[in-house]
Design brief:
single chain, about 375 residues, alpha+beta, Beta-Lactamase, Arc Repressor Mutant, subunit A, 5-stranded antiparallel beta sheet, 3-stranded antiparallel beta sheet, 14 helices, 13 strands
Length: about 375
C-alpha cells in the first residue's frame, strides 16, 4: 500500500527542510530527500514531476517541485512501495492532489495567525487523499478504461496499437518519442489494457520480444438512462417531475455530440470512486435530495456540493415537484463502451503490403480478431 507524503521546502539560508510528513512516523532521510531535489534541479530547475527510486528507504517517490523561480520552493513527495508506480493512480489525479496541497501550503504562509488550523486541515486532506488513492487500485474494468482515456500516455498507446501490432520494446520507444518523456515502467501502463481485455500479449516465433495485439477498442460516452426513462413514461416517481425529466433528457440528447473535452470531463468523474458509486446508485432510481444515501461521516452540505458539480457537468438534474421537493435524476449515464476494432483488419493488410509488419504478426493479429468476433 502507499506509504504517505513528505513535503519539503528549500531556502537559500537553511537549505532543504521537511515541512510536514504524514503519517508522522514516515521518515525519509535527508540524503534521499537531496537526491530527489537534485533530480528536480538538474537543468533549469523548473516546476515539474520526477520519479525517483530510493533504495535505502525501499520506496518509489513521485515528486512535484514548484520550481526555483517560485516564491516558495516546495517539493511534494508521494511515497510509494518499491513495486508501485504513479501510473497506477493516474497522472490527472496526482496532479490535482498536488495542486490542492499547494493551496494549503500557500494559505499557511499567508495566514500566520491560523497556521496551526490550516496545518490540521492539510493533514486531514492528505489522510483522506491516501484513502482515496488506495481505492483507485480496485477500480472496475469500466473505470480502468476511463483511467486509460484520462491519461495522455494511455490514449497514445491505444492510438499506436490501432495502427498495427507492436513489440513491447517498439511501443516503449514510440511512446517516449511521442511524449518526449522517460517512461520507467511500461508494464504498469500496459496492465490497464490487459486487465480490461483490450490487449493480448503473445510471442511470435523467432522474435526475442513479446508482441502486443489490440483485441477491442472503446469509447467514453454519455447515454440516456433507459430505466429512468421507462419509469418517467409511466409517470414515476410522480407525473409532474416525470414530465419535466422526459423533456430535459430528450432535449439534451437532441443536441449531444461527443467531444474529447467532454469525454475527458466525464472520464474524470468515472475514475472517482465516490462519485461513480453515486452514479451507479442513480442509474436505478431517482431520489428526493434529502433522502440521497450518505457515506460514513458525510453531511447534507457535502452531498449537495458534489451534486452541484455533477449538475453543472450535465450528469444529474435536480427537479422540483409541485410541493417544492427537490428530486435528483441521472440525466446522462456515463460509460466506457467496448466495440470490435474492424478497422484494424484493413490497417494490418496495409502494413503488410507496405512491408512494415511481418506476416507472422499480421496472421496472429487476424486470428485473435477472428476469435473475438466469434465470441
Amino acid at each position: 500500500m502507499t506509504k504517505g507524503y513528505v513535503i519539503t521546502n528549500w531556502t537559500e539560508d537553511q537549505g532543504l527542510g521537511v515541512q510536514l510528513s504524514y503519517p508522522e512516523d514516515l521518515i525519509v532521510d535527508l540524503d534521499d530527500m537531496m537526491r530527489i531535489f537534485y533530480a528536480h534541479i538538474t537543468g533549469a530547475g523548473e516546476a515539474g514531476n520526477v520519479l525517483v527510486r530510493l533504495e535505502k528507504a525501499r520506496s518509489n517517490v513521485s515528486s512535484y517541485f514548484t520550481g526555483m523561480e517560485s516564491e516558495n520552493q516546495f517539493m511534494i513527495n508521494f511515497i510509494m512501495e518499491l513495486g508501485e508506480d504513479p501510473e497506477i493512480f493516474g497522472e490527472t489525479i496526482l496532479s490535482e492532489i498536488n495542486q490542492n496541497i499547494l493551496f494549503y501550503l500557500k494559505s499557511m504562509n499567508q495566514n500566520l495567525t491560523t497556521r496551526m488550523d490550516i496545518t490540521e486541515e492539510l493533514i486531514d486532506y492528505i489522510k483522506n487523499s491516501l484513502t482515496y488513492l488506495e481505492r483507485l487500485k480496485n477500480l472496475t474494468k469500466e473505470q480502468v478504461m476511463a483511467q486509460i482515456y484520462s491519461s495522455e500516455k494511455g490514449r497514445m498507446i491505444l492510438e499506436i496499437l490501432q495502427e498495427k501490432p507492436h513489440t513491447k520494446k517498439e511501443l516503449h520507444n514510440l511512446l517516449e518519442e511521442k511524449t518526449g518523456k522517460f517512461i520507467p515502467n511500461i508494464d504498469i501502463l500496459l496492465s490497464h489494457f490487459v486487465k480490461t481485455d483490450l490487449v493480448r500479449q503473445d510471442w511470435i516465433e523467432g522474435d526475442s520480444d513479446i508482441s502486443l495485439f489490440l483485441l477491442s477498442d472503446f469509447i467514453i460516452i454519455r447515454s440516456p438512462v433507459s430505466k429512468l426513462l421507462v419509469e418517467a413514461k409511466n409517470g414515476l416517481p410522480n407525473p409532474y417531475v416525470a414530465k419535466k425529466y422526459l423533456e430535459l433528457a430528450t432535449g439534451y440528447f437532441s443536441y449531444y455530440k461527443p467531444t474529447k473535452a467532454d469525454n475527458l470531463k466525464i472520464a474524470s468523474h468515472m475514475i472517482n470512486p465516490d462519485i461513480f458509486d453515486y452514479i451507479i446508485l442513480f442509474r436505478e432510481r431517482s431520489y428526493p435530495i434529502n433522502k440521497v444515501p450518505r457515506g460514513p461521516g458525510q453531511t447534507f452540505d457535502q452531498i449537495r456540493s458534489f451534486l452541484a458539480t455533477l449538475e453543472a457537468d450535465h450528469i444529474i438534474k435536480i427537479i422540483k415537484d409541485e410541493s417544492n421537493i427537490e428530486w435528483v435524476f441521472l440525466l446522462t449515464d456515463i460509460t466506457a463502451h467496448k466495440f470490435y476494432p474492424e478497422y484494424l483488419i484493413e490497417n494490418v493488410r496495409k502494413a503488410v503490403s507496405e512491408d512494415i509488419l511481418k506476416k507472422e504478426s499480421a496472421i496472429k493479429q487476424l486470428e485473435l480478431l477472428e476469435q473475438i468476433y466469434k465470441k
